Give the backbone structure.
Amino acid sequence: MDFRAKIVQHLPQLAITTYREVSGWDNVACIVNEQMVFRFPTTVENRLPIVAEGKLLARLQPMLAIAVPQFQFLCEDGEAICSYYEMVKGEPLTPDLLHALPVGEQEQTAKAIAAFMTAMHQLTPDGDAFRREHDECYWQSHLDEVEEHIYPLLTAAERVRVAEFFQGLLEQVRRPDVAKAILHGDISPSHLLYDKERHRLNGVIDFGDAAIGDPAYEFYRLYDEYGADFARKVYRYYPLFAADSGFYTRMAQYYSKHPVFHELLYAIELQDGEKIAAERAKIAALFGYE
């Protein structure tokens, strides 16, 4: 599809002075005039989720002190073929940027992220079709992949420790008091936008991975990207799910460590020897082996 032509066809009044495309797994993002984002799903099946995402964002924005995208749609034959919105201003909150901020600004940023997560996790599905993740079936399937592809790379002792890790995780997610919420799904530096002039978190973008799951899982990227101290700081400002007695355990002991398995599986799929060795070393370090 000629995405630029589609934009011109539907919005002939829009004067395009600059244009670039960024390809992703599910969408192609077309950046117009460095002010507007047009997201075209890569398959027909991916069109329905953008409508659910738009409804979610419309309900979320009034609950927030920061910005999130507000969708409009290009439609053909009664079906949305593209979502578009004004760009949310700010630059990615990289680990270097965060840790260079004064202590007070880091504290305010932690509060802002916690406030965003609190609002997000209070939303109800409201009839929107979001996939369900992070239940026992999800983690058992993940363990099956680990046993098939990663176990052959581990020593016998390491396999025992990894098996114990997943057994503990499965026991935790089976608990009857495990909370469920709509998750952003990918709270990473590129999706947290910081305004240096106003010294504050300005917005959160890219809700394409939104799903119904365990809200404790939402913290894993904070651990992975910014470190345990900052992740725990965000958690201190997060007021929800006090009745979920295993929330902190799942967050700190299990979800904070799981990314290494995803990364190693991806490296194996790519047959990237250098990355396989690096992620393999991380597993050894995480589980107490040199």
Observations:
- The chain has two domains: 3-86, 91-286.
- The first strand starts at residue 19 and ends at 23.
